[in-house]
Here is the input.
Amino acid sequence: MTTDPRLVWLTGFAGLMIAAAIVDFRRLIIPNPLVGGLCVLWLLDLETTSDAIPATVIATIGCAAAVFLVGAVLFSRGLIGGGDVKLLAAATLWAGVGTLAPLLLLTGLIGGLLALLLLTPLGARISAAWNAGPEQAAARPPRLRGAPVPYGVAIAVAGLVVTLSPHLG
Here is the structure.
């Protein structure tokens, strides 16, 4: 019985994306080793994919670079976090050229819903519990305005949906 290497890389992708979402929600940072791991796994997946067309690979890398450059501009203006920029570029590698638009759209929708959730008293309490521990969260009132949104969660969920859904059917 042999294991399809692609399944191994996709499982690693899913694990790293889930880890990035959890770390970003708890600490509002996305560690570079997680993003680096996603890029290395993409290269390994690319190596085992027999139907990889060079032009498509180059276009995918170009799209990821464009996403990174636009994100870097947004980061320089304080509109998005640096880890979010790197995670979105890595997710773009995995999604590919054909599903970049759904990735960006889904990321925006999930991020907007997450922001709305965090504006509610329940969302503020959930965020406080994750960030400070339950005993400290109960002792202080929740912040309703100006709370940062862990956008890595939205990027990770969108990346998982867009990348894994073709392989689940």
